[in-house]
Amino acid sequence: MNPETLKYNLQMSKHPIALTGAGISVASGLPTFDISWNNIPARKILSREYYFRYPKQFYDFYREILRWNNVQPNATHRVLAQYGVIIITQNIDGLHQKAGSTEVFELHGNLRQLICEKCTNKYPSEKATKEEVPICSCGYTLKPDIILFGDPIYYWEQAKKQAAKCDLLLVIGTSLQVTPVNILPDIVRNNNAKVIIINKECESLFNKLL
Asked: How far apart are alpha carbons 71 and 68 in whole angstroms?
């Protein structure tokens, strides 16, 4: 994919969508979730079982990734915002919103808030920096508003509806190994719409569109 072709497709599209994964944020300095913390795989920590069994260790790790809130969007985030592309993202870093995207479906949640699964109260994520294990006013342990492994994802019905009516789907920074998100390109193709997959050097490609 060359920048001219990508720019042409974006300009000609009436309903463009981007499906983004961790790879889009690597140029901003963020890792993928194939990382470990204290020799424990992140994927193990970010599970419901670990959250309930080891809440202190879980929140120690969560405080580490809260530093992602200080990271800035890169060229890819900014170009998608510039062209008004609707975002369906597996990321929790909030970089699409920072770049100016206004319609963002965060399938895996976000780092902005904590939630109480008992009474549904919500708190800013900063509460986790002040309490070892943050507790709701109702006395229940709070959970970060992120999808833990094994949980159903957010906004799935909306994501499928967007895929069904789009005329261009950009798949950026994701290997499409995770279900059910990996069926979205098939939904688009079944409607004879275009799918463009960009997983390598997306930063340098999009930087040429700024």
From this structure: 5
